[in-house]
Design brief:
This protein is mostly helical. It has helices at residues 15-27, 40-43, 50-66, 83-93, 98-102, 105-112, 119-122, 124-133, 147-164, 204-212, 231-239, 242-254, 259-285, 288-317; strands at residues 2-7, 33-38, 74-78, 139-142, 172-175. The chain is 55% helix and 8% strand. Strand 4, helix 9 (147-164) and strand 5 form a beta-alpha-beta unit. It starts with a strand and ends with a helix. The structure holds adenosine-5'-diphosphate and tryptophan. Adenosine-5'-diphosphate binds next to helix 1. Tryptophan binds next to strand 1, helix 8 and strand 4.
Length: 321
């Protein structure tokens, strides 16, 4: 299967992004042909500072490679390096009913809150459809929040194919299994909009400080506590081995423990888990040419494929003579 997914460089990646998305995308590279890209064109709808955007794109590439994306197995590239996608987006746009986009939540939510939206945000799902169709992708692993956009992509592919003949491969959303919501330091869903994130590559010392400040309830130490409803435990189990998780579960059920001890265990487990990725990242940071080369080669491979699909689409709708 050809697997494709994109991630927006709109900030530094946090634990929620990793456990809810990136980790599963990367695992698919072992058994499938993976295409993964950094969606800088999409990020332009929110990041409007050139230096900041360039920095986020660079960080996203370093992070993904450090986390295990293997350029020998999968194709990693930057969205805007493939101009064919923007051309394909226009072809799709001419067949996109406005009503379809009006129902999409990214736009609808903003509109309902009275926030001004631009055409970029409104047509965002069409660009996403072009991203997917340009590479004949079969599977698109995404979080729950993106499923609606995959439906739009399928609608657009279906109507284009019905009108012009079989041009596009029909993609399928692969909803990331057990992407339970990763809680933030306050117990709400971790999100950069809530200022409750724990960064994947924050310096270990800062991370430890943040972990020590994770909110906890004020029940007496002696009371047994239900681990399943405790966000500190939810975070711990992401990093811990099954044996460690069991041990801490029993501590919760028994009671008589301090949250400080659990936080320390969480910080230790996170360090043990993240240290290899931190080391790989430091190495890549010292070798920017290598990272550029990976992105360049990724873009070449992706572009060849997108060119073939765009040719097919252009021929079908009468653009090529
Ligand atoms: P944020 O909410 O911080 O702005 P994004 O919307 O950029 O994060 O998230 C990118 C992807 O990471 C999402 O599509 C989603 O699948 C995943 N994700 C983000 N936050 C979480 C979370 N707290 N738990 C699980 N998955 C998450
Ligand atoms: N919109 C996706 C997100 O915010 C990122 C994205 C852009 C994407 N194009 C894509 C994901 C194509 C999957 C396929 O998370």
């Amino acid at each position: 299967m050809r697997v494709l997914s994109g991630i927006q460089p709109t900030g530094r990646f946090h634990w929620g992004n990793y456990f809810g998305a990136i980790k599963q995308y990367i695992e698919l590279q072992h058994d499938h042909e993976g295409y993964y890209f950094i969606a800088d064109l999409h990020a332009l709808t929110t990041v409007r500072d050139a230096e900041v955007l360039r920095g986020y794109v660079r960080d996203a590439a370093l992070d993904l490679l450090a986390l295990g994306l293997d350029p020998a197995k999968a194709t990693l590239f930057v969205q805007s390096d493939i101009p064919e996608v923007s051309e394909l987006c226009w072809l799709l746009m001419t067949g996109t009913p406005l009503g379809l986009l009006e129902r999409c939540h990214a736009y609808k939510d903003k509109k309902e809150k009275g926030i001004k939206a631009d055409a970029g945000l409104f047509t965002y799902p069409v660009l996403m459809a072009a991203d997917i169709l340009a590479y004949d992708a079969n599977w698109v692993p995404v979080g729950e929040d993106q499923v609606q956009h995959i439906e739009v992509c399928r609608d657009l592919a279906r109507s284009f194919n019905a009108h012009y003949g079989e041009v596009f491969t029909m993609p399928e959303a692969r909803i990331v299994a057990d992407a339970a919501k990763v809680p933030g330091t306050d117990g709400e869903k971790m999100s950069k909009s809530y200022n409750n994130t724990l960064g994947l590559f924050e310096p270990a010392k800062d991370l430890r400080k943040k972990i020590m400040r994770i909110s906890t309830d004020s029940r007496p130490m002696e009371d047994p506590k239900d681990p399943e409803t405790d966000h500190l435990f939810q975070l711990y189990r992401l990093f811990a081995t099954p044996e460690q998780t069991e041990e801490v579960r029993e501590i919760y059920l028994r009671g008589g423990f301090g949250y400080g001890d659990i936080k320390k265990r969480l910080a230790d487990a996170a360090d043990a888990y993240l240290d290899p990725a931190r080391a790989r990242r430091a190495e890549l940071e010292g070798n920017p040419d290598r990272v550029d080369q990976i992105l360049r080669e990724g873009a070449e491979r992706a572009r060849a494929r997108a060119r073939a699909v765009l040719d097919r689409a252009q021929r079908a709708c009468g653009l090529s003579r």
